[in-house]
Amino acid sequence: MKKILFGLALLGVLAGGCKSRQAGQQAGAYPEEKLGWKLGSQAYTFNRFDFFQAVAKIDSCKLRYVEAFPGQRLGGGMEGRMDFRMKPEVREQVLTKLKAAGVTLYGFGVVTPGSEKDWKQLFEFAKAMGIRTITSEPKVADLDMIASLCETYKINVALHNHPKPSIYWNVDFALESIAGKSKYLGLCADIGHWVRSGLDPVACLKKARGHVLHMHFKDLNERSAKAHDVHWGSGASDIPAVLAELKAQRFKGMISAEYEYNWRNNAPDVAASVAFFRSAL
Asked: Which residues form the Xylose isomerase-like TIM barrel domain (predicted)?
């Protein structure tokens, strides 16, 4: 009996050791997790493909989070498109397939409903799907209503900054628009679009300290409105300084890779960018 008990104890120790090594390997593979960063991809990066093809590409880039965008064909044997109006049974199917793929739906957007009724439906969709952050470019007049919904549902809405002349291209205006409304109402900092608008992404992040809820991550070949994506760390966005600022701010949330170039075969570009990102940490 003593031998049997000793053997069982030894197996327990070995199993615990294996789990510890697996946890350590996982931490090494995803160093951003220690900082509370959820590194993933905007499905728009793979908009030439259906949603579940995009999920497979995201997984191939060693990423575990997806920000879905409205209108993408679902695929994966499913009819319809990614839409906050989808039926409950379709939502369940999507979540089941995502779980099997090992990819978590974290964000949704950029989406801007046209009425309070549609905003409520969007929040109900986000709640049902486990979405933490909605990215949007809403009317300034709707922000009080949106802030109230944020408080009710405890779900973030992050204002996205397409390049000028879009409504929130200027970080100062975006911050003025959300001032004093809700901790769940903040910014989706698209650092590439800031560069396209002639702004310094690090300076913009410093101004937005405490209000950055979500990131759209890009590096561009030059500082101009016509710039295109390049591998992170090789362009004009000063990625190392951006990472240092996010660390200094103790940013928590999703960092969505957006690689809007080489559309038909950009998964290797995303993978190379992710490898640089993790080595830079």
From this structure: 61-279
Q: What is the separation of C-alpha 190 from the centre of its chain, rounded to a whole number of angstroms?
A: 11
Pairing of strands 104-108, 78-81: unpaired
Residue-wise pLDDT for 182-217, tens only, equals 999 999 999 999 999 999 999 999 999 999 999 999
Q: For domain 36-280, give its CATH number from 3.30.590.20, 3.20.20.150, 3.30.2350.10, 2.102.10.10.
A: 3.20.20.150
What separation in angstroms does the CA of 153 have from each of 44, 46, 120, 238, 262?
26, 30, 10, 36, 38
Q: Identify the CA nearest to 68 among candidates 121, 99, 106.
A: 106
Within the chain, strands assigned E span: 37-42, 65-68, 73-75, 78-81, 104-108, 133-136, 156-160, 185-190, 212-217, 253-257
Burial 266-281 (b: 16+ CB within 10 A, else e): bbebbbbbbebbeeee
pTM check: above 0.85? yes
Query: Which amino acid does the sequence have at 13?
Result: V
Residue 40 and residue 64 in contact, taking contact as beta carbons nearer than 8 Å: yes
Of 182, 185, 187, the residue nearest 160 (C-alpha): 187
* pLDDT range class, residue 28, cuts 50, 70, 90: confident
User: Of 215, 210, 160, whose CA–CA distance to 40 is shortest?
Assistant: 215
